[in-house]
Amino acid sequence: MPIDPREPDPAVPDRADPAPEGAVRPPRGDLPLSGPPTGPGPATDEEPGPDAASGPAPSEDEYTAELQELEDRWRRALADLDNLRKRHARELERERTVERSRTAAAFLPVLDNLELALTHAGADPGAIVEGIRAVRDQAVNVLELLGYPRHAETGVAFDPARHEVVGVVQDPNAPPGTVVEVLRPGYGDGERQLRPAAVTVAKRE
Predict the structure, then answer these.
(1) Residue percentage of the chain with pLDDT more than 70
(2) pTM of whole model > 0.70?
(3) Which site in 45, 84, 97, 144 is 20 to 30 Å from 103, CA atoms measured?
(4) Which one, of 146, 147, 148, 120, lies nearest residue 134 by Cα?
């Protein structure tokens, strides 16, 4: 039987008919095929990192050599520091020895005058008293030259930094809080104080 050209041939499937469920649809000519792009486009390869531009990584021997150099420098620094500490200790001990010698030498004339006073002890008792007083004044002068002036003033206001109270007395002639009597002189000031003066202070009303 002849087929009308206007009627579709039942043996040729219509492209508009949907594919049966589960069947794979054949590729169409109007759709782009999947796959890597063939034309020009953005580069997909990753750019090299900073490590690639810096060249090959140092070898283990180079790391070992650098570590050895740092360790040698550290040991030399420790040795220099130890030598500096020892030299400073020697210089400090030398300065102390010189200072002790200077102080002892300053008191040699005091000892000479004491021996001279003892030599003439039987001649004149009055001269002995004057000689001892002169030796005392000489020793006080030596201490003052060393930076430790003598403090034995009365009638001054009590200063806890320079005075040590050993008694409080009632004295109508002395203002309250002033030094009435010095029982033991003090020597030095501030941080260079050998000892404070032991004093009695007028009682406050």
Answers:
(1) 71
(2) no
(3) 84
(4) 120
